[in-house]
UniProtKB/TrEMBL annotation, chain A:
This is Electron transfer flavoprotein alpha/beta-subunit N-terminal domain-containing protein. PANTHER family: ELECTRON TRANSFER FLAVOPROTEIN BETA-SUBUNIT. InterPro entries: ETF_a/b_N, ETF_b, ETF_beta_N, Rossmann-like_a/b/a_fold. Gene3D superfamilies: HUPs. CDD domains: ETF_beta. One of its GO terms (molecular function) is electron transfer activity. It comes from candidate division TA06 bacterium DG_26. Residues 24-214 form the Electron transfer flavoprotein alpha/beta-subunit N-terminal domain. Pfam families: ETF. It comes from the Bacteria.
UniProtKB/TrEMBL annotation, chain C:
Residues 229-379 form the Acyl-CoA dehydrogenase/oxidase C-terminal domain. It holds the Pfam family Acyl-CoA_dh_M. Keywords: FAD, Flavoprotein, Oxidoreductase. It comes from candidate division TA06 bacterium DG_26. This is Acyl-CoA dehydrogenase. Its cofactor is FAD. GO terms for molecular function: acyl-CoA dehydrogenase activity; flavin adenine dinucleotide binding. Residues 6-118 form the Acyl-CoA dehydrogenase/oxidase N-terminal domain. Belongs to the acyl-CoA dehydrogenase family. Residues 122-216 form the Acyl-CoA oxidase/dehydrogenase middle domain. Gene3D superfamilies: Acyl-CoA dehydrogenase/oxidase, N-terminal domain, Butyryl-CoA Dehydrogenase, subunit A, domain 2, Butyryl-CoA Dehydrogenase, subunit A, domain 3.
Length: 262, 323, 382
């Protein structure tokens, strides 16, 4: 089974300070650490599990400059066989549609049975590239997948809806699935697989290789554009209790008592 | 006259709230733009839905067909594309829900209409169309423009209050287009299994998030919950890590709760979680990051290491209870 | 001179770091308290190849070099020094001498077991009456037909309680002085081989440390490692190698202590400001960071020299071990100091780092012995 996994290198912002830069439309990146997008890690693991069950190869694809190799290399060490990095400096500020188009163009040359992507990127939170890619490739897809079953050429996918409800859908391959976190337990790369990963290839494809034109990529090719970034307006702001743990506990206990909670 | 269309979302016999939120928002946009507000309803034997929607739109376009009993993005895309033969709306609103995310990206490709997802606000400024959405887990808001002043937007549920619009839209039936059958087939739904504890019934909930660091630390928070006679709940990462079962998850893919008291411990406050608890009477947040979005939702906040504060708080509550 | 790690080495470091944070850190304080051997994590690490880093792939190991092993041990030791030394002993004090001095049958028999942590290794050198003074060992091994009769006691043996494969040093011919010592592989279950009580130590409490007791133990003669009389040489060479790893362990502990101190300094306020603004605190952090960097480079350098195949590297490994253990002691002392009263509480990891650190200056050759080794090397012009 030929599986393609689309991965993204994202900044780890959950515990970091996120500051708008001087352009007003991007963030200051120099103090941030980067890693593979969380749901992509689960997508990769799912792909490797399927490969281990059915045989075949796992191809990692990502759009990004040289630093992205770190993420691809780790992906190869975790069971990926081949990696493709797509890059041209013109690709910066590509919106979701352009991102999906670049991926679709790269995949024109690959024969695949299944495409797995993460269901959401933790930086922009768009949840759109997977669905758009499926649309551009002309293949059926399912989103927020928490379970994959394959029988012959049919994929059965469990999609998580709201409130824990699951919708089960069936579709023929080739198909695309956007993978939800928690679907499996991602492995650590073993020392041997890290060793093997050195000899695995990361092919870099440029804009020329992909046959794309400057006008259709990056900020220039995008029909949506981030104009401004700013911290959210302080709407309803919590009353912050001040003091030592002792003091705030006292204050809070009083508040709860007054509300009849104790 | 241009149109602003809203795709109605329904499931298993119910119209979902986000539909009305979008119609109310759509009304404001339509008025500003001098456009018609159109509700699009795809389903089978859903005349009652059409009636309700007609109170919230200038027109309801109804496509009725057995193929539309269960949501299928391929069929929806086929039908919606055929509806645009009569003219493209300047803006199409779809709920940013599991169904919405399933259909909007493909529809955007089919219609060649720019897409911005998970919008908390959207407005026209002259000819410009601008959407507001969150990034970086809610730490920043982004203003995103649609280059061509038209587009498709998925709207975050709960981002607009619903009020009656008092409209009397006409209900127009449109044909179900012929075409290839979809490749994807609906099989069935699976209900979330009932857990041992139904957190939606609790008066007091103490919820934990990634700030907990290790499974072993659950006991610290469990004790706080017990001291208040409440139950333990959590955000998604805790369930992904296998520390608590799914029935304890509060959030868009878990449960929505409205207890009297909700204490969020070590939870950053990303939208997916907050949406499940913001209806609580009193919300208290404990997080050592002063910029955590959770403080925007809480009534009271403690900016402190949870390991320093929770045991002390529990001690005081126990003390007060026994005196 | 390229000070950069290779991409592989960075991946290894990254993987072990994640594993350490996600799997080892959550239980580190607990196993220190209960003195429980962390079998579950050891098994998981074995699956990743960490218990046989330098064991060739054909025997189930990862077939990597000593620099990679040092990186592994450093990352583990940042969060759990006990687990770090378990891995170090298994790799360089047991698997390595078997690999380097053993025969094909011994390779096939023992290396796969160690690499997969089906058996854990231990090395018995130290005795109740002799630590540094190897010549004063009292253990004896007498050849009697098809087996050796082994008598003696080894004390303070890391991994002892759990060990299935032990390398034991005993005199086969006392008259020849240190050239009369031999090394043996003794498996658990050997008649006459028993283990003492679990030691109650200041630090490194989860390594199953105990005595190994041999009372007319029957060790098959095939279990002689190398040749009779080669024991001392095996011990010295093995220690030269393992000192690199103990150096790595010390660097790891020191780095863990520094990271905790930096974090604490940023969060703690006194006199109206963050204590990280105070020069005394900054001074301590600067000293720690600089010494740790120097120690790390000495350790990596010693590993690289070994990997290059240089036959004698006692000076380099002793320098690394000595300097790293001193650095570690300074670092944990300062880290606890930065934490103030909290550093004295078991609620904070630095308290454990402080206790774990002390033995760095004692085991694998005391700091005094290391200096003798270094000085001898200088004086001999090597």
């Amino acid at each position: 089974m030929e599986i393609v996994v689309c991965v993204k290198r994202v900044p780890q912002t959950e515990e970091a300070e996120v500051i708008v830069d001087s352009s007003g439309a991007d963030i200051v990146k120099d103090r941030l650490t980067y890693d593979m997008n969380e749901s992509d890690v689960y997508a990769l693991e799912e792909a490797v599990l399927l490969k281990e069950k059915f045989g075949g190869t796992v191809t990692l694809v990502s759009i990004g400059p040289q630093e992205t190799d770190d993420v691809l290399r780790m992906g190869l060490a975790k069971g990926g066989d081949v990696a493709l990095r797509l890059w041209d400096p013109c690709f910066v500020h590509s919106d979701g549609y352009v991102t999906a188009s670049i991926l679709a163009r790269a995949m024109k040359e690959i024969s695949f049975d299944l495409v797995l992507t993460g269901c959401i990127a933790t930086d922009d939170g768009r949840s759109q590239v997977g669905g758009m890619l499926a649309g551009l490739l002309g293949i059926p897809h399912a989103s927020y997948v928490t379970r994959v079953e394959i029988e012959e050429r049919t994929v059965t996918a469990h999609s998580e809806l709201e409130a824990g409800l699951i919708q089960v859908n069936r579709m023929p391959m080739p198909a695309l699935l956007t993978i939800q976190t928690g679907i499996n337990e991602p492995r650590y790369a073993s020392l041997i697989s890290i060793k093997r990963a050195t000899s695995k290839e990361i092919r870099v494809l440029t804009m020329d290789d992909l046959g794309l034109e400057e006008a259709t990529v990056g900020g220039m090719g995008s029909t949506t554009r981030i104009m401004k970034l700013a911290p959210p307006e302080v709407g309803k702001r919590a009353e912050i209790l001040k003091g030592t743990p002792e003091q705030v506990s006292d204050t809070l206990t009083e508040i709860l008592k007054k509300k009849g909670m104790i | 006259m241009s149109a602003i269309s809203v795709l109605a979302e329904h499931r298993r016999g119910e119209l979902r709230d986000v539909t009305f939120e979008m119609l109310v928002r759509g009304r404001e946009l339509a008025e500003k733009r001098g456009a018609a507000l159109i509700a699009i309803l795809l389903g089978h034997q859903v005349d009652n839905f059409a009636q309700r929607l007609s109170e919230y739109a200038d027109r309801v376009i109804l496509v009725d067909h057995p193929d539309l009993i269960h949501f299928n993005p391929e069929i929806y895309r086929k039908v919606l594309t055929s509806l645009t033969k009569n003219g493209r709306p300047v803006l199409v609103l779809i709920g940013h829900t599991a169904f919405g995310v399933d259909v909007a990206p493909g529809l955007s490709v089919d219609l060649n209409l720019a897409l911005v997802t998970d919008c908390v606000d959207i407005r026209f400024e002259g000819d410009q169309l601008i959407a507001v959405r969150q990034m970086y887990g809610g730490k920043l808001n982004a203003e995103v423009s649609f280059a061509e002043g038209e587009g498709l937007a998925t709207i975050r549920p709960g981002s607009c209050a619903v009020r009656p619009l008092g409209l009397h839209g006409e209900i127009v039936k449109a044909d179900y287009p012929a075409g290839e059958p979809p490749r994807r087939e609906f099989v069935h739904y699976i209900e979330a299994p009932p857990g041992e504890v139904d957190i939606t019934q609790a008066d007091v909930i103490v919820a934990v998030g990634r700030g907990l660091k290790e499974k072993a630390n659950l006991s610290i928070v469990e004790e706080l919950a017990s001291s208040l006679g409440g139950v333990l709940a959590c955000s998604r990462p805790i369930v992904d890590a296998g520390w608590l079962p799914k029935d304890r998850q509060v959030g868009s893919s878990g449960k929505t709760v409205k207890p009297k008291l909700y204490i969020a411990v070590g939870i950053s406050g990303a939208f997916q979680h907050v949406t499940g608890m913001k209806g609580s009477d009193t919300i208290i947040a404990i997080n050592k990051d002063p910029n955590a979005p959770v403080f925007n939702e809480a009534d009271y906040g403690i900016v402190e290491d949870l390991f320093k504060v929770v045991p002390v708080l529990k001690g005081k509550i126990v003390e007060l209870r026994s005196s | 001179m390229d000070f950069e790690l290779t991409q592989d080495q960075k991946l290894i470091q990254d993987m072990v770091r994640r594993f350490a944070i996600n799997e080892l850190e959550p239980v580190a304080a607990e196993i220190d308290r209960t003195r429980e051997f962390p079998w579950q994590n050891i098994k998981k690490m074995a699956e990743l190849g960490l218990l046989g880093v330098i064991v060739p792939e054909q025997y189930g190991g990862a077939g990597l070099d000593f620099l990679s092993l040092a990186l592994v041990i450093e990352e583990i030791s940042k969060v759990c020094a006990s687990t770090g030394v378990i891995v170090a002993v298994n790799n360089s004090l047991v698997a390595y001498p078997i690999l380097n001095f053993g025969n094909g049958d011994q390779h096939k028999k023992y290396l796969p077991l160690l690499a997969k942590a089906e058996k854990i290794g231990a090395i018995g050198l130290t005795e109740p009456n002799a630590g540094s003074d190897v010549a004063a060992f009292e253990s004896t091994a007498v050849l009697e037909g098809d087996h050796y009769r082994l008598n003696g006691t080894k004390r303070f043996i890391t991994n002892g309680r759990e060990a299935g494969v032990c390398i034991v040093f005993a005199y086969t011919d006392k008259s020849k002085g240190h050239r009369g010592m031999s090394a043996f592989v003794v498996e658990d279950g050997t008649p006459g081989f028993s283990k003492g009580e679990h030691e109650d130590l200041m630090g490194l409490r989860s390594t199953g440390n105990c005595e190994l007791i041999f009372e007319d133990a029957r060790v098959p003669k095939e279990n002689l490692l190398g040749e009779e009389g080669q024991g001392f040489k095996i011990a010295m060479h093995t220690l030269d190698v393992s000192r690199i790893d103990i150096g790595a362990q010390a660097v790891g502990i020191a780095q863990g202590a520094l990271d905790a101190a930096v974090k604490y300094a940023k969060e703690r306020k006194a006199f109206g400001q963050s204590i990280s603004e105070f020069q005394f605190i900054q001074g301590m952090l600067a000293e720690m960071a600089t010494q740790i960097m120097a120690a790390r480079l000495l350790v990596y350098h010693a590993a690289v020299v070994k990997d290059r195949g240089v036959p004698r590297f006692s000076k380099e490994s002793s320098m690394a071990k000595w300097f790293a253990s001193e650095t570690c002691m300074n670092a944990v002392r300062m880290a606890v100091q930065v934490h103030g009263g909290y550093g004295y509480s078991k609620d904070y990891a630095v308290e454990r780092f402080y206790r774990d650190a002390k033995v760095m200056e004692i085991y694998e050759g005391t700091s005094e012995i290391q200096k003798v080794v270094i000085a001898r090397s200088l004086l001999q012009g090597t």
